[in-house]
Amino acid sequence: MKISVIIPVYNEAKTIARIIHRVKESNPTLDMEILVVDDCSTDGTSGAVGALGDSSIVLMRHARNQGKGAAIRTALARVSIRAQGANDSVPSRQR
């Protein structure tokens, strides 16, 4: 089964390559697509993603800054199978 990993970004040109690398190395055998939504960055974030040349990365861009929620909704409109996980909703003592 393929999963989609959503990464909303804003001005992350310096860190996006490392973020994507860490996502991919977290489970290298997993079939995943990485949906990066650039929320109108001004620092070259989209270019940094494009420079990776990775066909498993789908880059989407907002023409104006709309916020993290809008970036997530943009990516959700692209995925065909959805399974939601919210690890950050679990109190830290239960992790």
Q: What do these coordinates show?
A:
- It contains three helices and three strands, in the order E-H-E-H-E-H.
- The chain is of the alpha/beta class and 95 residues long.
- The chain has a single domain, classed as Spore Coat Polysaccharide Biosynthesis Protein SpsA, Chain A (Alpha-Beta Complex).
- The protein has a three-stranded parallel β-sheet, sandwiched between helices.
- Helix 2 links the parallel strand 2 and strand 3.
- It starts with a strand and ends in a 19-residue tail after the last helix.
- The C terminus is likely disordered.
The poorly predicted ranges are 86-95
Termini separation comes to 26 Å
CATH architecture: Alpha-Beta Complex
CATH homologous superfamily designation: Spore Coat Polysaccharide Biosynthesis Protein SpsA, Chain A
Order the strands across the largest sheet as they lie in space: 1-2-3
Largest sheet descriptor: 3 strands, parallel
* Radius of gyration, CA atoms, in whole angstroms: 14 Å
**How much of the sequence is in beta strands?**
15-25%
User: Count the strands?
Assistant: 3
Averaged pLDDT = 88
User: What is the assembly state of the chains in this entry?
Assistant: single chain
Helix content: 25-40%
H and E order: EHEHEH
- Helix/strand/pairing class, anyone? alpha/beta
Overall tally of structural domains: 1
Treating each run of at least 4 consecutive H or I residues as one helix, how many helices? Answer: 3
